[in-house]
Recover the amino acids of this structure.
């Protein structure tokens, strides 16, 4: 028997549009799986379908081998934490966190709420009204409320995307910690690659309703299954074997592409001299848009100053590259 | 789809508190969520079996409206096409050929157009001042403005009449029983509808849109015409169509103020029925009335659909201090409030204190007696009748209205489901437009014999009043229920709450305040209801508005004085009911 969640061949259709198309995905006990996709990729629909908030047009959802497709939302034990928290505005912080604890007696409930608020770093917040919370605090309360239900599976629908960058980074770490401390298996939906990589044991890449690849963050980064996945992870440009050889990296197998990561193109005194088209300045460095042999555009980070019209010599750092099969979308040059 | 963040849900009649708590979280994910937000059917329970549950909840209000609205009104319409020989168009064609009919129709439309135009033109500055600006005393002013709408039509009629009769303070104008008098009373009554509906939207318009236009070089006037007015247009249209409906179906006010020369289709139906006993003619007029009302509702529905489009609204309200450039708005609103709203009420109170022996409480002392002889009960007894009747009507209207609102606030996934809901939405609003007189008249001819003989039951009047009050309850509850983000219910469901617990812990607490307001509106409306009640009240058990109308129609200063005092009592009762309803504690914030 398979432990934990298995979504088998599930599809969700809105009229003629397939938002989720034959997706199979598993979450093992204690595991955190991130579903990574651009907006409109169907990742929220996938989550809602597994939660029972969206009717399936095909496939089934099982937990520990038992089919839960027909089980009502409130009996599934899959708790959804929404993007903007969806705290109940008429209840206090304590009332929200204690919502799922309605079977406990009042004093036991109070204790448990205090415990959970402590876990998310909000000691003593229980009597406060929801309206007095900042965005980050609200999400912590939403997390505490979700954990209070002791979910079999916690589903997080872009829980941090409405927060600003610094706070998001910090909360990502805290979220991962809270999930691991409580041993809660989670399905975490996000469009943010860093967030997915930071939090998940495995990352599932979704595009146009189809699952492209499921892998550990490391494997996903070093071996993207195809050009589309690589592109979404931030790889580019993609060099044909001959173009790679022209930059001093022969040996890319035929039928594959050499995907350059963000720092794969480096200044190299022994490299190839290329013209600088445009520059953007950072702190103590310059990002130069250059034209590579073969005509593709690339970006190289330079210590010091360069101006358009200058020439730089560049080479490839193999540690920043991945080899991907040349799939359907390979025709267009970046 | 609700892409792009906030939108106006629907012109709330009384601005419901918005509980939509959506942060502006990025357009892209909003769009994606919008798709998800379409299903949602409450997110409780499985997807099967729900239809059966909804149908069970729907049966009660549908059955009620079928028996107590569709049947009486349908029977009335049928009566217009039937005479002794069977089906016949004689009755209808006679009425349609009569010059008197077209004079009445013309008067109805003229009064409605003038009343609507006056309410909108005067109401816009009021909406701006009371909802966009902030100044000391605004709360009080808002309360003052809100009072006339809930005042019984009979009271409004008596108040204006006491001002304009030859012996009144404005008697020298010679406006008693005139067109301007009726229009003024209609504006008095409907001013707050415009102020509240338009003001509610205005207070949430993002001021930066107008500021952007200003910074692009537009003058204040150009900003008004090109930015602000178009943004307000849906609310103005919604308010105007509602006001037009109220004006076109005005009864009590026109009956008292119009005398013999001015009337509406409503008063004409009453006249044909009770004075001439010409039922076919009255039925034909009722059909004409239904046509006018249906046209109004269609226009209202079209504007409502337009209002669903997205507008740039802010979460809270945006307010500004008064500036020198606000002087015209202050002036207009000041004149309206003092001259149009306060003067008639103050005069009514003043007149009620005038007795043959000077200023005193003599008229109020007469309320307990049967001085006039021909009225079977004292005014206090009639007041007690009114309170009991209104309480029963409120219970019925609230019970049914809650069910209807809950059903209409669902968001079905299927196209067919949405179509059914849209149709039901209109169907439940129909009694709002259908004249109370038609309802009362219909009761009179259908519920007086088996299978349902309620002629001798005191419940007849509460039921009629509930039919009239039901749409008001729905209009108060529905916007609030609709504004509850479905993801709140979903969040509760994923936390383990079943459908019953979601209803009890999410929907009910969030709609609590709207529920209080709906109770107030239902009770106040029933208390002052005159159109239907005037047909159904038995002589030995009249309600307060009926007694006031009987008193005002009698000769003698003493009767007039008693009528004034009784009108003051009714006004105070109604205002007190609304004050209690408005005084509902703010959102409950409890530690647990």
């Amino acid at each position: 028997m398979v432990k934990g969640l298995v979504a088998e061949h599930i599809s969700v259709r809105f009229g003629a549009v397939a938002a989720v198309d034959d997706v199979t995905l598993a979450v093992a006990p204690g595991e955190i799986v991130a579903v990574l996709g651009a907006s409109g990729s169907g990742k929220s629909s996938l989550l809602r379908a597994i939660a029972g908030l969206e009717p399936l047009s095909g496939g089934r959802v099982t937990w520990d081998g038992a089919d839960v497709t027909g089980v009502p939302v409130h009996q599934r034990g899959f708790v959804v934490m929404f993007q903007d928290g969806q705290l109940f505005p008429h209840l206090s912080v304590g009332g929200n966190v204690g919502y799922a604890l309605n079977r406990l007696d009042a004093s036991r409930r109070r204790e448990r709420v205090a415990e959970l608020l402590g876990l998310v770093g909000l000691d003593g917040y229980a009597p406060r009204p929801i309206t007095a919370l900042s965005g980050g605090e609200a999400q912590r309360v939403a997390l505490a409320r979700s954990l209070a239900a002791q979910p079999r599976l916690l589903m997080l629908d872009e829980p941090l995307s409405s927060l600003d960058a610094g706070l998001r980074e910090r909360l990502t770490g805290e979220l991962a910690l809270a999930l691991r401390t409580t041993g809660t298996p989670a399905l975490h939906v996000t469009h943010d690659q860093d967030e997915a990589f930071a939090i998940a044991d495995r990352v599932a890449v979704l595009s146009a309703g189809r699952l492209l690849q499921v892998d550990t963050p490391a494997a996903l980064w070093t071996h993207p299954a195809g050009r589309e996945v690589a592109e979404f992870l931030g790889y580019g440009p993609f060099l044909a074997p001959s173009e790679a050889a022209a930059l001093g990296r022969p040996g890319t197998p035929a039928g594959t592409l050499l995907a350059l990561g963000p720092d794969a193109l480096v200044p190299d005194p022994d490299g190839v001299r290329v013209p600088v088209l445009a520059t953007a300045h950072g702190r103590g460095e310059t990002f130069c848009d250059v034209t590579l042999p073969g005509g593709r555009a690339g970006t190289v980070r330079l210590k010091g100053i360069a101006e358009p019209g200058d020439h730089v010599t560049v080479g490839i750092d193999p540690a920043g590259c991945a080899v991907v099969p040349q799939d359907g979308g390979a025709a267009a040059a970046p | 789809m609700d892409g792009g963040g906030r939108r106006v849900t629907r012109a709330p009649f009384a601005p419901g508190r918005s509980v939509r708590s959506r942060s502006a979280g990025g357009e892209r994910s909003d769009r994606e969520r919008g798709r998800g937000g379409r299903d949602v059917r409450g997110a409780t329970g499985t997807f099967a079996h729900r239809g059966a549950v909804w149908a069970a909840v729907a049966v009660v209000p549908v059955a009620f409206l079928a028996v107590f609205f569709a049947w009486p009104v349908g029977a009335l319409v049928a009566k217009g096409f039937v005479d002794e020989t069977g089906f016949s168009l004689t009755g209808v064609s006679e009425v349609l050929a009569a010059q008197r009919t077209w004079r009445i129709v013309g008067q109805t439309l003229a009064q409605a157009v003038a009343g609507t135009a006056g309410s909108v033109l005067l109401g816009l500055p009021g909406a701006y001042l009371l909802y966009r600006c902030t100044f000391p005393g605004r709360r009080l002013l808002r309360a003052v403005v809100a009072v006339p709408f809930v005042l019984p039509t009979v009271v409004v009629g008596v108040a204006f009449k006491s001002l304009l009769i030859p012996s009144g303070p404005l008697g020298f104008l010679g406006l008693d029983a005139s067109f301007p008098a009726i229009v003024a009373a209609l504006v008095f009554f409907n001013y707050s509808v415009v102020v509240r509906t338009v003001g509610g939207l205005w207070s949430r318009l993002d001021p930066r849109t107008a500021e952007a236009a200003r910074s692009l070089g537009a003058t204040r006037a150009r900003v008004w015409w090109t930015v602000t007015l178009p943004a307000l247009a849906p609310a103005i249209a919604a308010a105007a169509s509602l006001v037009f409906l109220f004006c076109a179906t005005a009864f009590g006010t026109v009956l008292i103020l119009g005398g013999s020369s001015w009337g509406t289709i409503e008063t004409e139906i009453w006249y044909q029925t009770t004075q001439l006993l010409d039922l076919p003619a009255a039925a034909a007029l009722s059909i004409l009335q239904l046509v006018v009302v249906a046209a109004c509702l269609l226009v209202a529905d079209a504007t409502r659909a337009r209002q669903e489009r997205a507008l740039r609204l802010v979460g809270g309200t945006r307010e500004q201090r008064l500036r020198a450039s606000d002087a015209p708005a202050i002036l207009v609103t000041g004149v309206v409030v003092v001259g149009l709203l306060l003067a008639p009420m103050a005069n009514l109170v003043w007149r009620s204190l005038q007795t043959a022996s000077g200023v005193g409480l003599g008229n109020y002392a007469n309320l307990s007696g049967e001085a006039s002889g021909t009225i079977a009960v004292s005014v206090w007894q009639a007041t007690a009748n009114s309170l009991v009747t209104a309480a029963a009507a409120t219970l019925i209207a609230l019970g049914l209205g809650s069910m209807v609102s809950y059903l209409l606030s669902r968001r079905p996934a299927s196209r067919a489901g949405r179509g059914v809901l849209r149709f039901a939405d209109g169907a439940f609003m129909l009694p709002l437009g259908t004249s109370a007189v038609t309802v009362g008249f219909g009761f009179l001819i259908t519920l007086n014999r088996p299978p349902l003989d309620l002629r001798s039951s005191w419940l007849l009047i509460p039921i009629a009043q509930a039919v009239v009050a039901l749409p008001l309850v729905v209009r108060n509850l529905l916007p609030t229920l609709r504004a509850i983000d479905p993801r709140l219910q979903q969040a509760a469901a994923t936390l383990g709450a079943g459908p019953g617990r979601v209803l009890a812990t999410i929907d009910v607490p969030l709609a609590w305040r709207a529920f209080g307001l709906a109770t107030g509106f239902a009770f106040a409306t029933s208390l002052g209801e005159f159109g239907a009640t005037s047909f159904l009240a038995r002589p030995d058990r009249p309600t307060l508005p009926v007694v006031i109308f009987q008193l005002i129609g009698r000769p003698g200063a003493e009767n007039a004085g008693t009528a004034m005092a009784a009108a003051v009592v009714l006004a105070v009762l109604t205002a007190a009911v609304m004050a209690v309803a408005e005084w509902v504690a703010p959102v409950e914030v409890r530690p647990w």
About this structure: Chain A is about 25% helix and 35% strand. Chain A touches chain B through 55 residues (CB under 8 Å).
